[in-house]
Amino acid sequence: MKKNYFFALLMLTISLSGFGQSIIITSIIDGKAPSDGCSGSTGSSSPKAIELYVSGTINFAGHKFEAEANGSSSGESWSSEDISSLGTRTDEFVYIVVLGESTLYGMYSGATVTNTYVGGPSFNGNDAIRITDGTNVLDQFGDPSDVSGSSDHDNSWEYEDSFATRKSGSSSNSGSFDINNWVLPGRNYLDDKTSCAEMLAEINLGTYSTIASTTPTITVSGSTSSFDYFEGYGPSAEQSVIISGENLTDDINVTVPANFEVSLTSGSGFNSSATITQTGGVASATVYIRLAAGLSVNTYSGDAIASSTGAVNNSGTLTGIVSPADPQFSYTAYLDDFNYLISDGTTSEEQSFTVEGLFLLGDLKVTAPSNFEVSLTSGSGYDASVSLAHTSGTIAETTVYIRLKAGLSEGNYTGDITLTSITVDDKTIPVNGNVYGATSNSLVITGVYDGPLTGGTPKGVEIYVLKDIADLSVYGISSVTNGQGSTAGNVEFYFPDDAVTAGAFIYVSTEETKFKEFFGMNPTYTTGVMGINGDDAIELYENGQIIDVYGDVDNDFSGEAYDYLDGWAYRKSGTSLEGTTFTSANWTYSGVNGLEGGTNNATATKPFPLGTYNVTASVSKNQIEGFATYPNPITNNRFTITTNSTDKKQVAIFNVIGKQVLSTSFAATKSNIDVSSIASGLYILKVTEGTKTATSKLVIK
C-alpha cells in the first residue's frame, strides 16, 4: 500500500554567527532517487551526502570523513577517506557527496553546491558518521556501538531513505551523539517522492544557524501507511507518529479528518482530537491514529493537523480503505527449482509456501501439477492434493510442503500449483524442477580476473572446453560472495544451447565494452553474475552439480594467496577440475593489484595469461622438424613459418572459441602468412605436414 506521510518539516534560515573555529555536521542524507530520475542520478539510493558548516576559518588538510557500518559491540570499525582537497573554508557550508553527481545533489536539495568533495566511504541509514582532523573527532552523528538488528537497537536515529537535520543553536558533539540536537522525519520518508521538486520542498540545506531559533515550531517524525480493514471488522490497526514542539507559547492541538481517530494512549482514548501539553515551551508525545469502526466500503482521506499559537501548522494527508468482506484467499511463495540426480533414487528436497483465507464458503484445495506432490506435514503425507478446512470462513496462515516426485526420467518438469475454493477465482503458483543425469566433466575453470579499469572492470572467468559439447545449456556458473558459503544447485547463469569444440576457450564477463578494451577481443558471454571481486569464489555446474570451483567458498580470501583483487588467478596446465575441492597449489597468481599499472592486459604489471591453459603440462605440440614462427606477437599483419622440409603444409588459425578464421597452405621450408584480415587477439596456429602436426599460440596486435 502506498505510504502517506503526516509530515512537513519547518526550518527557518537565520543569520550565521560563529562558535569559534569548528566543523559541524548539519545534515545527512540517505537518498532515494525518484521515478523522474533527477538528471545525473547514479542509482536508486542516490544521493548519499553530508552537509557541514564551517564556523570560523578551517584548513581541511589532514581531515577525514569516516563511516561505521551497522554498529559494533566488539569495537568500532570506521571506514575513512581524506577530505583535504576541500582546502581552507570560512563561515560557509561544504558538502561531501558520497553517491550521486554533485549537480543532482544541488537539484535534489535546492542548495547551490559549489564547495563539494565527491567521494568517501559509502553509508546506509543505520550507519554512524563522523569528521576528524586525523586524530581527534570533531563531530559525530549516530552511535557506533549501537548494533543494527540487535534486540536493544535504538532505531530512533535511523535515516534510511530519509535524512537528518541539526537544530540551529546546537554545536558539534565531538565523540558523542545527542539525538535531541537533531530533527529526523523517520525512515523511508523519501520513498513516495515521485519528483525532484517534491524532495526539493522537504530537504532544506543551508538553513542551519549557530544561533538557536526562538520561533515556535512543530515537528512530526515518522510516517503512516494507508489504514484499512474489512467491512464490519473495524477499527483499523493503529499507527503512530511522534509530534514535538519547541519555543512554544501554547499546547499543541492535533486534529484528524472525519472517519479517523486520534489518541495519546495506545489502544484507548480515541477521539477526533488530542492535546499535547507544553512545558517551558517544549512538548513531545507519541500520537496514535486509526480509521474509525463502522464505516461502509469506500476510500477515506483528509488532512491531519498539528497546530499551536504562533507556529506554522504541520499537516499531512491520511488515507484509509474499507474493503468488502468477500470470500478470499492468498498465498506467499518463494520457491526455487526442485532438483535431484537420477543416481540419488529419491525425491527433490521439499520446499514450502503458506496460504490463508477469509470469509470462505468452502474448504481450500491445493493441487500439485503432474510429477509434483504436496503435503501439510514436513517429510510425510505427500499426495496429489491437500484440503484445508475453514473455521467460520477463516483459514489461518498454513504451511504447505511440495516436492518433485521420485523415479522420474532425466529432464525438465514444470507446471502450476492450483489453489481453489468455491466462489473465489483460482490462483496458481508456477514451479520448475529438473532431474539430472550423470556429468561428463567437459568444462574446467582456467582463470578468474578482477580488472583495473573503471568500476573494477573487466570482471569474469575463463573456461576451457575439455571435450566436444553439443548442448552447452546443461552447464551453468555461480559466484559466491565474500566467503558466504555455497548454496549447491543455485545456478545463477545458465549457458545458452550452443555447441562448442574441445580445445576452445569460453570467456564470461560482466559486459563487452571494457572486456574488449582490456583484452582486445569480445567475451563469449556477458552476465551480471560475473560482477565479482577478488574475494569471491566461482562454481561451475553441469546438470545441476558442481564440477569445478575456484576458491574456498567458506572463506573471504583475506590474506590468502588466492585473493585476486585487481588481479588474476590462472590454472596450471596439466591440472584439471576437482568437483567441490579447491587446490590452491594448482593455480598461479598475480597477487593483489597484479593487473594495475596499465590501460590494457598487455601493459598491466602482470598480464593475465589469456588462453594459455593446456590439458597437459606442455603448452605446445610439435612433431615437425625445424618448426618455428616469428615474430610473436605479430605487429605488422604478417608472420613467418619455417620448417626443415619442402613437403606441403596445411596452415589453419583458430580463435579462442575454436572457430577457424584462416586456412592456407605452402610447399617450402619458409612462408610468410598474411593475417591482415584477422582482428587483434589470441589465436591457435595449427600446421599439418603429412602425418605430423605442430601447434602454437599466436598473439596478433
TrEMBL record:
List each copy of the Secretion system C-terminal sorting domain by range: 630-700
Matching entries from InterPro entries are given as: Secre_tail
> Which keywords does this Swiss-Prot/TrEMBL entry list?
Signal
TM ranges: none
Pfam families, alphabetically?
Por_Secre_tail
Where does the record locate the signal sequence feature? 1-20
Q: Which domain of life is it from?
A: Bacteria
Protein name, please? Answer: Secretion system C-terminal sorting domain-containing protein
